[in-house]
Amino acid sequence: MMDAVSTGELAAALRTWRDRTRPDDVGMSVNAPRRAPGLRREELALLAGISIDYVVRLEQGRTRTPSAQVCASLARALRLSDAEQAHLFRLAGHAPDRGRISRRIPAGVRKILDAVHDPVGVLDATWTLIAWNPLYAALMGDPSALSERRRNTLWRLFVEGEPGDRVRHTRDELDALARSLVADLRGSTSRYPHDPELARLVEDLTAVSTEFAAMWDSGVIAGHHQSHKTVEHPEVGAVELDCDTLTTAEDDLRLLVFTPAPGSDARSRLDLLGALGTETMAVSPSASGSATAPPPR
Q1: Which of 63-72, 108-117, 159-168 is most confident?
Q2: Domain membership flag for residue 292
Q3: pTM above threshold 0.85
Q4: What InterPro entries is this protein classified in (predicted)?
């Protein structure tokens, strides 16, 4: 739990980082003169996928401890360095612990998100999406509008039947994906025995999904390999992709990299989607910021 000193330091740090972050640093257009060069609160809320009210309460030091996922979203939105991220997590009561999952987005991973011209999503060791590049959001739908629980791949798969609103799988593909994800999650529980959010996820999935409970009890073991995805996009149609999962050594993150399937027209569809996404992102934040994401859970 955060004490009053840490709460005040966190509030001051967030204000400082927001004031120094210019809109063009994070891909936001500015269509009118501004009194200050930094991000507005509503812009930070939009980028981090949290409510404006929650940003206000954080900056005024009058809210509960922000979750690790919220800290990761703030760090991503504010483009914090590795040292600044570590400071943010410590102030929020999430000091590094070998028994707990890291939700830090290293600067090197952010560079990959900025440089790769294919959709890329970054997930923690619970398979919860914590960062993504613009093309991923354009392809899959804006993840910032989702609650933290609905950003979890296992929750979407076992509770809602598909890992994403636009992804389509055959029954065999879903079965293979389910086995590999459960096996990977089991490995995470042995590496992070003291992580409360991981324990809560397993408990909740067991309570609401008999399929997950049976698979978990069976001790299923399966590897996570390259997979094929068909994404049904409302504007560009079916996009055929290969998905490779890369794991970082230090933070145990999963990078999902989607590349055009050989022999498909996915490259041209992604290029079109990139152009459409750029036009959508050019909308003034003041015009789009009225619809904020739900407050963190």
Answers
A1: 108-117
A2: no
A3: no
A4: Cro/C1-type_HTH, Lambda_DNA-bd_dom_sf, MLTR_LBD
